[in-house]
TrEMBL record:
Belongs to the pyrroline-5-carboxylate reductase family. Keywords: Oxidoreductase. Pfam families: F420_oxidored (PF03807). This is NADP-dependent oxidoreductase domain-containing protein 1. Probable oxidoreductase. One of its GO terms (biological process) is L-proline biosynthetic process. Residues 75-156 form the Pyrroline-5-carboxylate reductase catalytic N-terminal domain. GO terms for molecular function: pyrroline-5-carboxylate reductase activity. It comes from Mytilus edulis (Blue mussel). Transmembrane segments: none annotated. Gene3D superfamilies: NAD(P)-binding Rossmann-like Domain (3.40.50.720). Coiled coil: none annotated. The keyword Oxidoreductase applies.
């Protein structure tokens, strides 16, 4: 066989080169998206439990937060359950403390979700049912599906439901126009040009990857390890989650004083100094028993606010925010380790 023939055979038999960063970026997008969504779900759940203590002072906060079977938990909906939606569901059940009976999934092929159904998750194909029975809905559909889904849902959306979009190509402004609601949050991601210098283990799934504290901190919107991440989240997203939590407290009929109490307890681990004040959000009034107005979450993302500046520049606030973020995943890992030692862990 002459040289030309050998070279031709080599071209036809060798596999094409593989761009390893393609899978790397997909993996980290899923890890980042699932981690942030899980954290926010935990925050909403804790706020809901704290509300019970605030409205029932005779009960102890610690008891409510440590109940083995908390009452009145957040009802979570996932709209679309392809690869990302499925990973998110597993993450919520593992790290988010979401009970299967409090998680619903609407997808065009619910029969493919046998694992989730075996856990007790209600899987069906009825988008209106999903949004009218959930407190928060995670949008995990393809961008091409958004217009038809929005047309189906826009006149049936309860005013209190929070939409958390993981559809990267649609901004909150555009989603607001389509869904006719401003109660939308959406992490804005950017990909680093030097992503090839970052080393991530592509053999891990999302749940396994989040057992690494360094990986978890890379996903935090205002974490200290963001520069090491392939995918970075706009720092404004931390502020958007804070305002969404404030709307949640208003929905729960909490006063301004009570709302700030929940914010500091849930997001900043009972921060004792450098606290947020009423005038950081609105013009100060003498009406301490009144409630905060409902904030337009889309506008919050578009404008500069004192809250964002304080959240990023105040080192104490930022540090406690990151610590709380990390604790969401660390708590499960410690519980898992204790269960393994005692021999009670699930197989």
């Amino acid at each position: 066989m002459d040289l030309v023939q050998r070279l031709k055979q080599k071209v036809t038999t060798e596999p094409p080169p593989v761009d390893i960063t393609e899978n790397l970026e997909t993996l980290q997008f899923e890890i980042t998206a699932c981690a942030q969504a899980t954290y926010f779900t935990v925050v909403l759940n804790e706020a809901r439990q704290l509300r019970r203590q605030i409205k029932s002072p005779q009960k102890k906060t610690a008891k409510i937060l440590q109940d083995r079977e908390p009452k009145d938990q957040v009802k979570v909906g996932i709209l679309g359950c392809g690869r990302l939606g499925s990973q998110l569901a597993h993450c919520l059940l593992t790290y988010g403390g979401v009970r299967p009976k409090d998680l619903k999934v609407s997808t065009r092929r619910p029969e493919t979700l046998e694992y989730l159904q075996s856990k007790g998750v209600d899987c069906f194909y009825d988008n209106i049912k999903l949004i009218t029975t959930s407190h928060i809905v995670y949008l995990c559909v393809l961008p091409s599906q958004i217009p038809s889904i929005a047309e189906e849902l826009k006149h049936n959306i309860p005013p209190t439901v929070i939409f958390y979009s993981l559809v990267s190509t649609y901004t909150t402004k555009k989603l607001k126009q389509l869904l006719l609601t401003s109660n939308i949050i959406h992490p804005e991601f950017t990909w680093r040009d030097d992503s090839h210098t970052n080393t991530w283990d592509c053999t891990l799934n999302v749940n396994a990857a989040l057992e690494n504290p360094d990986t978890v901190e890379m996903t935090c919107p205002i974490g200290y390890k963001k520069s090491e991440s392939i995918i970075c989240t706009n720092e404004k997203f931390a502020e958007q989650m804070l305002f969404a939590l404030m709307n949640w407290c208003t929905q729960l009929q909490l006063t301004k004083v009570e709302t700030l109490e929940v914010i500091h307890s849930v997001l900043f681990q009972d921060l004792m100094e450098d606290k947020f004040r009423e005038e950081d959000f609105i013009k100060r009034t003498d009406n301490l028993v009144g409630m905060f107005p409902r904030f337009d979450l889309v506008k919050v993302f578009q404008v500069k606010t004192p809250v964002q500046r304080k959240l990023v520049e105040d080192e104490h606030l930022r540090k406690t925010f990151v610590q709380k973020y990390l604790s969401v995943f660390d708590t499960y890992i410690k519980q898992r380790a204790q269960a393994l030692l005692s021999g009670t862990a699930d197989n």
